[in-house]
Amino acid sequence: MSGLRDFRGRWFVVKIGGELAQDRPRLAASVGAAVRAFLDAGIRVAVIHGGGPQATELQKKLGLQPRMVAGRRYTDEATLEVMKMSLAGQVSVDVASAFRLAGVPALCTTGMSAGLITAERRPPKVMSGAGPEPVDLGLVGDVVGVDVEAFRRLSDAGFVPVLGSLGGDGRGQPFNINADTVATRVAAKLGAAKLFLVSNVPGVLANKDDPSTRLPTLTPAEAREKIASGVIQGGMIPKVEESLEMLEEGIEAIHIVGISPPEALLHEAERPGSQGTAFLRG
After folding, report:
1. Which residues, 6 or more positions from 73, have their beta carbon under 8 angstroms from its beta carbon?
2. What is the pTM of this model?
3. In the chain, what is the straight-line distance between the N-terminal and C-terminal CA atoms, in Å?
4. Is 282 annotated to bind ligand?
5. Is the pLDDT confidence value at 2 over 60?
6. Known binder of ligand: residue 178?
7. What whole-number distance in Å separates Cα of residue 69 and Cα of residue 66?
8. Which of 48, 58, 65, 282 lies at a C-alpha separation of 20 to 30 Å from 77?
9. Are 211 and 49 in contact (CB under 8 A)?
10. 56, 96 contact by CB (below 8 A)
């Protein structure tokens, strides 16, 4: 705990994948317990969550076929409705339930609320893993603003803001946003000491099928080389690319960490590289 107290008054941002919300007791015992420890050490915490598995399941129930491009979900009007139901409904309530079990005062909403996250529609752009032509992802947003003062007021009032990854523009148009993108932008604007990207994956693996090949630390140059050589691939590419961009904007360290064992997140916060992959600026 003494190491955590070195960050008293600073922000930690935690991003959790939607798959983690499917097991509330497990989420409470791992991420919830770590967030509670952060709060006890005087650290401000914000949490961002996705909802990919829940959205995919709901799409299929509605007879819609999910479309993925370079690890990202294509969002048409029907898919946006599914994302609203999944992120603001099912996942939000499940995360709130898990955090309540852990004694965390979570205020769960989305980036649309009170203009917490301002976004604009993403223009077509070339994406790693999707060929040379620009890709249009539909009603997907880029984060252009974060209401830092609102986050601070919520923290001062004793709450942990927990946001589903939706944002909107000044005309009230909502956009689906990759949760890693929201988390990295929020962390950068808050001047976070640490950003944790938590999922079922225990870090960046040299062999995606072998957890023992986890890379404990990566510099930006090393990470780019791993992408170019194909070691980092699929959905991990946008996660790593967002991380590298945000290291340049002031986040001191970014950690990709798994949910197992339950103490993984807390131990990674105390000893970077011990339980996940830590991205360092050097």
Report:
1. 52, 55, 66, 67, 79, 83, 137, 140, 176
2. 0.92
3. 26
4. no
5. no
6. no
7. 10
8. 48
9. no
10. no
How large a percentage of the chain has pLDDT more than 90?
A: 68
The pLDDT value given to residue 232: 86
Mean pLDDT of the chain: 92
CA distances from 83 to 24, 49, 141 (A): 20, 12, 13
Cβ neighbours of residue 157 closer than 8 Å, sequence gap 6 or more: none
Residue 110 is encoded by which pair of tokens? 């989305």
Please tell me whether 207 is known to bind a ligand: no
Q: Which CATH architecture has domain 2-279?
A: 3-Layer(aba) Sandwich (3.40)
Pairing mode, strands 160-164 and 141-146:
unpaired
Cβ(116)–Cβ(147) below 8 Å? yes
Type of residue numbered 143: V
- DSSP string over 246-261: HHTTT--EEEEEES-S
In this predicted structure, the answer to whether residue 282 has a pLDDT above a threshold of 90 is: no
Residue type, 182: V
| Separation of alpha carbons 29 and 266, rounded Å | 11
Could you give phi then psi for residue 136, rounded to 5 degrees? -100, 120
Residues ≥6 apart with Cβ < 8 Å to 55: 18, 66, 73, 79, 82, 83, 86, 87
Residues 6+ apart with CB under 8 A from 81: none
